[in-house]
Amino acid sequence: MTTYQPDPQTVATQTLASNELVDELLEETTEIDYVEVIQTVISSMAQEDSAMVSQTEAGQIWKFKYGTVEVFVHLTGSTDNDSLTVWSSVLKLPAKNEPQLMRKLLEMNGAETFEARFAIVNEQVVVITSRTVAELSPGEVSRAITIVATIADNNDESLQEQFGQ
After folding, report:
1. pLDDT value at position 18?
2. Closest to 156 (Cα-Cα) out of 52, 74, 85, 65
3. Do the beta carbons of residue 131 and residue 113 sit within 8 Å?
């Protein structure tokens, strides 16, 4: 069995590029505009014309294409009690050999997903990260989006090939 190890250099380089864009936003103000930070990060990562945003009662949701996956970013608001969630689907369920799939995902969660994790949401395996907005820095927003997008894009095709129906 071959396991995938994400390239920390790739994740670090993409995060650094996004962080540089985000740092420019901070030079003018000390209050963080999370919407502007998210839009800046997405514009640096999204494939042409793939980024969309919608406003709901539950906050704002962005969707963009990164490599072979769609990435979603949900911001419920800007108070300390609000949250930022980033996720991307990598495999629809049911899957072939689910016990082996679950073991593989748990092993990857332990060693390869940084602040993100694999989870099951709405009958899909997703890469996801979530946290409150309290003391959330622009760099952390950038890193969360970059990590989820990179891990999902690096693993979706191999998971679908090995475990897809």
Report:
1. 65
2. 65
3. no
What is the SS3 string spanning 90-110?
Answer: EEECCCCCHHHHHHHHHHHHH
Q: Which residues of the chain have pLDDT under 50?
A: 1-5, 29
Structure tokens given for 163: 């475990």
Q: Which residue has the tokens 């919608």?
A: 54
CA 86 to each of CA 28, 29, 93, 154: distance values in angstroms, whole numbers, following the listed order: 26, 25, 20, 16
What's this model's pTM, rounded to 2 decimal places?
Answer: 0.82
Phi first, then psi: give them for residue 45, nearest 5 degrees. -110, -35
Q: Are strands 124-132 and 83-92 parallel, antiparallel or unpaired?
A: antiparallel
Instruction: Give the three-state DSSP class for 35.
Output: helix
**Residues 51, 66: Cα–Cα separation, whole Å:** 10
pLDDT of residue 4: 44
- The whole-number pLDDT of residue 63 equals 97
Cβ neighbours of residue 111 closer than 8 Å, sequence gap 6 or more: none
Sign of torsion over alpha carbons 32, 17, 113, 126: positive
Per-residue pLDDT, 58:
92
CB atoms within 10 A of CB 55: 8
